[in-house]
Amino acid sequence: MKKSLLFVPLLAALALPAHAAAVAQLKAFVAGTRTVSAQFEQTVTSQGRQERAHGTLEISRPGKFRWSYAKPYEQLIVGDGKRLWIYDKELAQVTSRALDAALGSSPAALLAGDNAIEANYKLREAGKQGGVEWLVATPRQADSGFSSLKMGFSGNTLKEMQLTDSFGNVTDIRFDALKKNPPLAADRFRFAAPPGVDVLSE
């Protein structure tokens, strides 16, 4: 299940009323948040099996992000505004492709891209569960790579995301130590392949 790791760059604390509905909080986040840093825990469930991963993420909107997996194996995904770089340390391999083509209407585009949320997604409230306000974002394009995305907010903070792909695999991402608009150095979103690593460009 290693290749199910997502390059979904995701999220931050929101300066909104504590009881604002989830859709309103998402719109305010996209409109008012330029940079994000957070820690995350990811669980991928596929055919009854689960795989967990941990790491950190950073976002500089629009189009720049750094999504780093530390456990159980190292993988780095960097969007520099023009290209998407995926570095698999174990395989000693880098894959690079045009950022626009790689993101499309993916969750990465939703959070690190422009403000056209409702142009690419149908949004609806999904109610409150366990103190968390949920929304469902359904992509308008069939080739987005996932069938639905749920986002949960609590106390002005995006706490969790749940993604279901076209094969029924479910990825749950929980966030911790979220920071909104932290200062992030520009070189965090640049990538240079380590010496001796194969680079595959598309």
TrEMBL record:
GO terms for cellular component: periplasmic space. CDD domains: LolA. GO terms for biological process: lipoprotein localization to outer membrane; lipoprotein transport. Monomer. Keywords: Chaperone, Lipoprotein, Periplasm, Protein transport, Signal, Transport. Participates in the translocation of lipoproteins from the inner membrane to the outer membrane. Only forms a complex with a lipoprotein if the residue after the N-terminal Cys is not an aspartate (The Asp acts as a targeting signal to indicate that the lipoprotein should stay in the inner membrane). Belongs to the LolA family. It comes from Crenobacter intestini. HAMAP family: LolA. InterPro entries: LolA/LolB/LppX (IPR029046), OM_lipoprot_carrier_LolA-like (IPR004564), OM_lipoprot_carrier_LolA_Pbac (IPR018323). Residues 1-20 form the signal peptide. This is Outer-membrane lipoprotein carrier protein. It holds the Pfam family LolA. It is found in: Periplasm.
